[in-house]
Write a structure and sequence with these properties.
single chain; about 290 residues; Immunoglobulin-like; 5-stranded mixed sheet; 22 strands; about 40% strand
């Protein structure tokens, strides 16, 4: 009798659980399509712009949301340069392939873009560069301005040794009269690597952003590594002098990436200097030095 009652209890429990399962249809709003711009001006290098748009959370991750048919203009000192669009072979650009179109590349072929110019960017510390994007098909517009900052020279790269391993301390001179922002990177042996026939950026050993008002009070800006390097290694330090806009963009992008991997993190808003869209329009002004571990 007890066994029969137990079986009946289990059956009733399963039936009651099954009754709690219901399909619910959620009417999610159409995601907003935001123009996304990436443009890094380098003196002596052609203008390059990557123009895309945001996608919905549940959309196909393999679809590359490139914006086609846009008018992209960079202005400087009264000269307006309208960038050319890439040539497309197919209507879609798979995220894992570059064979859907002929991209424009930066000098070391570590970034690709879908708009480019043959005009080289001049080095000008006194006048702004202006970006205007007109999405002809989508009826959207975006604007941004930027200006070159003078590079901050690397003062020294000092090697330290412990148990047969080496570390390095890199320092640069910081202007005590201004609030400055920096991005500091350290690579081992090479800035790039070859992957699937393409040259791409090598992952840095060290990559930080620095707000000198927060961490330093003028004088020297310095960072050091652990004792991680062997004799024969070449350590390449790059010291970028960046705008506050770019500093904030990098910081909030990093926070957003971290939030994606945490179920407890709040969604993070990416700070941008693009009016009418998001992304970054900035200059790359840097000093670079290297040292070989003895």
């Amino acid at each position: 009798m007890k066994n029969i009652l137990f079986v009946l209890f289990v059956v009733l429990a399963l039936v009651s659980c099954d009754s709690l399962e219901r399909d619910i249809d959620l009417n999610l709003p159409e995601p907003e399509r935001i123009l996304t711009v990436e443009c890094y001006l380098e003196a002596g290098q052609p203008y390059r712009v990557l123009l895309t748009e945001t996608k919905g959370f549940f959309e196909d991750l393999d679809a590359c949301p490139l914006i086609k048919g846009a008018k992209v203009i960079i202005r400087h000192n009264g000269i307006a340069d309208t960038l050319n669009e890439s040539i497309y072979f197919s209507p879609n650009c798979p995220a894992d392939s570059l064979f859907g179109f002929i991209p424009f590349f930066n000098a070391d072929r570590t970034r690709f873009y879908n708009y480019g110019s043959n005009r080289n960017c001049p080095l000008d510390f006194d006048n702004d560069f202006e970006l205007e994007v007109i999405d002809v098909n989508g009826g959207r517009q975006a604007f941004a301005t930027t200006r070159f900052l003078r590079p901050v020279q690397i003062d020294s790269m000092n090697l330290l040794y412990k148990n047969g391993k080496a570390g390095v301390i890199v320092s640069a001179i910081d202007d005590v009269n201004t609030v400055d922002f920096y991005r500091v990177m350290l690579h081992k042996n090479s800035l790039t690597k070859l992957e699937n026939g393409f040259s791409i950026a090598e992952n840095p050993q060290f990559d930080i952003t620095i707000d000198d008002a927060r961490f330093f009070n003028g004088g020297k800006v310095a960072f050091g590594t652990g004792y991680d390097y062997d004799p024969g290694d070449t350590l390449i330090a790059t010291f970028y002098h960046i705008e506050k806009n770019y500093h904030d963009f990098l910081e909030t992008v990093s926070d957003a990436e971290s939030a994606n991997f945490s179920p407890f993190a709040q969604p993070n808003r990416i700070l941008t200097n693009i009016s009418g869209g998001q992304g970054i329009f900035t200059t790359l002004s840097y000093a670079r030095d290297s040292v070989i571990v003895d």
